[in-house]
UniProtKB/TrEMBL annotation:
<keyword id="KW-0810">Translation regulation</keyword>
<dbReference type="GO" id="GO:0022627">
    <property type="term" value="C:cytosolic small ribosomal subunit"/>
</dbReference>
<keyword id="KW-0963">Cytoplasm</keyword>
<dbReference type="InterPro" id="IPR032528">
    <property type="entry name" value="Ribosom_S30AE_C"/>
</dbReference>
<dbReference type="InterPro" id="IPR038416">
    <property type="entry name" value="Ribosom_S30AE_C_sf"/>
</dbReference>
<feature type="domain" description="Sigma 54 modulation/S30EA ribosomal protein C-terminal">
    <location>
        <begin position="26"/>
        <end position="79"/>
    </location>
</feature>
<dbReference type="InterPro" id="IPR050574">
    <property type="entry name" value="HPF/YfiA_ribosome-assoc"/>
</dbReference>
<dbReference type="GO" id="GO:0045900">
    <property type="term" value="P:negative regulation of translational elongation"/>
</dbReference>
<dbReference type="GO" id="GO:0043024">
    <property type="term" value="F:ribosomal small subunit binding"/>
</dbReference>
<dbReference type="Pfam" id="PF16321">
    <property type="entry name" value="Ribosom_S30AE_C"/>
</dbReference>
<protein>
    <submittedName>
        <fullName>Ribosomal subunit interface protein</fullName>
    </submittedName>
</protein>
<feature type="region of interest" description="Disordered">
    <location>
        <begin position="1"/>
        <end position="22"/>
    </location>
</feature>
Length: 88
Protein backbone atom coordinates (compact mmCIF):
# COMPACT_ATOMS: atom_id res chain seq x y z
CA UNK A 1 0.00 0.00 0.00
CA UNK A 2 1.38 3.40 -0.95
CA UNK A 3 1.76 6.04 1.72
CA UNK A 4 0.78 9.44 0.41
CA UNK A 5 1.43 11.40 3.61
CA UNK A 6 4.10 11.13 6.28
CA UNK A 7 3.36 12.27 9.77
CA UNK A 8 5.73 14.82 11.25
CA UNK A 9 4.60 15.77 14.75
CA UNK A 10 6.17 19.22 14.39
CA UNK A 11 4.55 20.03 11.04
CA UNK A 12 1.43 17.88 10.89
CA UNK A 13 0.76 15.87 7.71
CA UNK A 14 3.13 16.50 4.81
CA UNK A 15 3.07 15.06 1.30
CA UNK A 16 5.55 12.21 0.95
CA UNK A 17 8.21 12.35 -1.76
CA UNK A 18 6.37 9.49 -3.51
CA UNK A 19 3.21 11.60 -3.74
CA UNK A 20 5.20 14.56 -5.05
CA UNK A 21 6.63 12.32 -7.80
CA UNK A 22 3.12 11.11 -8.70
CA UNK A 23 1.85 14.70 -8.88
CA UNK A 24 4.70 15.57 -11.25
CA UNK A 25 3.44 12.82 -13.59
CA UNK A 26 -0.06 14.37 -13.80
CA UNK A 27 0.54 16.41 -16.94
CA UNK A 28 -2.25 17.17 -19.40
CA UNK A 29 -0.80 16.38 -22.83
CA UNK A 30 -3.90 16.95 -24.95
CA UNK A 31 -7.03 19.08 -24.75
CA UNK A 32 -10.13 18.50 -26.87
CA UNK A 33 -12.84 21.08 -27.46
CA UNK A 34 -16.14 20.35 -29.14
CA UNK A 35 -19.77 21.36 -29.16
CA UNK A 36 -22.34 19.06 -27.62
CA UNK A 37 -25.33 17.90 -29.63
CA UNK A 38 -28.33 17.73 -27.29
CA UNK A 39 -29.49 14.12 -26.91
CA UNK A 40 -31.17 11.79 -24.46
CA UNK A 41 -29.36 9.15 -22.40
CA UNK A 42 -30.23 6.30 -24.77
CA UNK A 43 -28.76 8.13 -27.77
CA UNK A 44 -25.64 8.97 -25.76
CA UNK A 45 -25.15 5.26 -24.97
CA UNK A 46 -25.57 4.38 -28.65
CA UNK A 47 -23.03 7.07 -29.61
CA UNK A 48 -20.58 5.81 -26.98
CA UNK A 49 -20.87 2.23 -28.24
CA UNK A 50 -20.58 3.35 -31.86
CA UNK A 51 -17.22 5.06 -31.25
CA UNK A 52 -15.99 2.23 -29.03
CA UNK A 53 -15.32 4.27 -25.88
CA UNK A 54 -16.23 3.37 -22.31
CA UNK A 55 -17.58 6.87 -21.52
CA UNK A 56 -19.33 9.65 -23.43
CA UNK A 57 -19.86 13.31 -22.49
CA UNK A 58 -23.06 14.85 -23.84
CA UNK A 59 -25.64 17.60 -23.41
CA UNK A 60 -28.67 15.92 -21.84
CA UNK A 61 -31.81 17.14 -23.62
CA UNK A 62 -33.93 16.20 -20.58
CA UNK A 63 -32.14 18.39 -18.02
CA UNK A 64 -30.12 20.78 -20.24
CA UNK A 65 -26.93 19.81 -18.36
CA UNK A 66 -23.66 18.26 -19.44
CA UNK A 67 -23.75 14.60 -18.32
CA UNK A 68 -21.55 11.55 -18.74
CA UNK A 69 -22.65 8.00 -19.54
CA UNK A 70 -20.20 5.19 -18.94
CA UNK A 71 -19.96 1.43 -19.28
CA UNK A 72 -19.58 -0.36 -15.96
CA UNK A 73 -17.43 -3.42 -15.32
CA UNK A 74 -20.61 -5.53 -15.08
CA UNK A 75 -21.56 -4.52 -18.66
CA UNK A 76 -24.39 -2.21 -17.56
CA UNK A 77 -24.38 1.56 -17.96
CA UNK A 78 -24.04 4.42 -15.51
CA UNK A 79 -24.97 8.10 -15.72
CA UNK A 80 -23.11 10.96 -14.03
CA UNK A 81 -25.15 14.10 -13.43
CA UNK A 82 -24.06 17.37 -11.84
CA UNK A 83 -25.44 18.11 -8.40
CA UNK A 84 -25.16 21.07 -6.09
CA UNK A 85 -22.69 20.85 -3.22
CA UNK A 86 -24.28 19.10 -0.25
CA UNK A 87 -27.22 17.58 -2.14
CA UNK A 88 -26.89 13.90 -2.94
Amino acid sequence: MKTLFTEDPAAGLNPSSEMEEELDDLEVVRTKRFTFKPMDVEEAILQMNMIGHNFFVFSNIDNQEVNVVYKRNDGKYGLIEKTEVGSY
